[in-house]
Amino acid sequence: MEPGGSSGVGSGNSGTYTPEIAESLRFEEEIQSLIHQSFDGSSAAGGSFTALLGLPANQAVELLHHPGPGEPPASAASSSPTAGDLWRLRLGEHHAATDALRLPFGGSSTFVERAARFSVFATDDSPASSSGGGLSPGLKAEPPDSDSPPTLPAPAGRPRRPSKRKECEKSKAKAVAKKSKSAEENTSAVKPAAEENTSGDKLPYVHVRARRGQATDSHSLAERARREKINARMKLLQDLVPGCSKITGTALVLDEIINHVQSLQRQVEFLSMKLAAVNPRIDFSGLDHILSAECGPLAVGSGCGGGASGTAMWASDTAASTGGIRRMPPPQQIWHLDLVHPQQSSTVWENNGAAHPHFLLSPAISLVGYDPAGSVPLNSNQLKMEL
Amino acid sequence: MISIDTTAPAKRRPKPSPPENEWRTGAQERAYRSSLLEALRAAGERRASGPRAVKEAADSALALTARGQSRWSRAVLLRRRSRLLVRAGGRIRRRKLPRRRPVGPTPGTGQPEGKKVRDRLRALGRLVPGCENLSTVSLLEEAADYVAALEMQAKAMRTLADDLLAAAASGNGRRAEG
Fold first, then answer.
1. Predicted TM-score of the model (pTM)
2. Residue A12: is it exposed, middle or buried by C-beta count within 10 angstroms (0-12/13-18/19+)?
3. What ipTM does the predicted assembly reach?
């Protein structure tokens, strides 16, 4: 934590860091001085700040322990309460604040960001000191830059801003974001306009709600692209879940998706119960033998091992052919020979194998339904599962 | 317009085919069936015939069929492993994902940032295994893959169960005959 040596900028300050309130006061004074330095005549910009911030300025001022500047008239002196307001408006708003203040302050924009961050943390107490400590070294560097033309530090401030913004975002609470979200949108809307304006000289702040374009800011471009990615994924999900295409509104669509996932999971549970009920009657050790040997030993555990072996054959076929070739007539012949009940099933197999040579699993299908009499409906039922 | 490649390759996996179509192919279903049977067999060997064991086997088989390309499949597989291993301090189970907040507070259109939407996204994250605190983008992606996989799983299990039951029934009849 920075010792209180940073007496700093402009007005004589206490430079003691211990009380955060004093720190914020110091910042405000410094900003005020900076404002007066470089911004005497541009009261319009100051007024635009207040107009930009509107009502919150008042509240923010009261929140800050800043007794002096009260209401936001359109004057340069009021820029300090607006500056304080800007600090109070957290998260992305400090982003806009820096943009707004970038006009007059130039390099001190980062200083304002830090001040904003600091004032936010003033309520949190703990990070305040560390951030305050971090701020002051830069603080000393600020005043020399304040006199430089704002356009020059402005581009420099711009790349810094996103990183700082991200830091701020990470460290601040979500609730804060929620609260200031609407204001963020406003400020982010005005921000690009500000940037366009600062390309020239210190133009007054034009309240152009440039929501549409936003092409100048790489940050908002990223936002836009991310938003589009999200929408694309949502569309994918909507197509996947039946009955979601008609629904409008993200929340309802998500509701439907959640219901669908839950119903699918329930189905899987139910089916697993069903399979578990069937399982005890199927000797899977028999399956194991068959799969490993692939010679269809006749010793299948239970009478229903036929069914099990059928599925085993089916599984073995898939297992064998996962290597590559999916259509292997030889396995079909092998099965013809190596069945559990060859005398009964061979005919069925040959029939079905001949009939459906292209169906990889048709022998297996016929295996499972190895009752020749009832094989036809059974096969059709099981063929369905392959499709 | 500044063309910024925001779909940074670092964050984006190459997706040759849309996940849901991938799951619908017959090849996937067959692959799943084989894995399922194998898993069921293994469960039977382990004398674990409860429905829970069956479900876990089925889920593991499903995750296996997913080839570990999706987060949920990896999470499911690791869930099984960690039951055998001693949870390894939770380190194996949960890869530290890039901890973007579930719904990053970003200015822009207020689309996924409403309170309701956020809640639902979180609920969805809880439903999909291994996707609890994931960014919105990844969450939706995983959810799509998971839904497709679940559908395939349900379909395969249903047919398998029906076949087994039918085969068992006919097998019983056959056994009665001799």
1. 0.44
2. exposed
3. 0.77
Report how far residue B83's alpha carbon sits from residue A217's, in angstroms, rounded to the nearest whole number: 49
Question: Residue type at B120?
Answer: R
3-state SS, chain B, equals CCCCCCCCCCCCCCCCCCHHHHHHCHHHHHHHHHHHHHHHHHHHHCCCCCHHHHHHHHHHHHHHHCCCCCHHHHHHHHHHHHHHCCHHHHCCCCCCCCCCCCCCCCCCCCHHHCHHHHHHHHHHHHHCCCCCCCCHHHHHHHHHHHHHHHHHHHHHHHHHHHHHHHHHHHHHHHHHHC
Nearest to A120 by CA among A211, A24, A236: A24
Instruction: Give the number of A-B residue pairs with CB atoms closer than 8 Å.
Output: 252
* Tens digits of residue pLDDT in B3-42: 555 555 555 555 555 656 777 788 888 888 888 888 777 7
Burial of A253 (0-12, 13-18, 19+ CB in 10 A): buried
Which chain A residues in 164-193 lie under 8 Å from chain B, judged by CB atoms? Answer: 169, 174, 177-178, 181, 184-185, 187-188
Minimum CA–CA partner of A290 in chain B: B41
Give the whole-angstrom CA distance, residue A88 versus residue A55. Answer: 12
Q: Compute how many other C-beta atoms are within 10 angstroms of the C-beta atom of residue A163.
A: 9
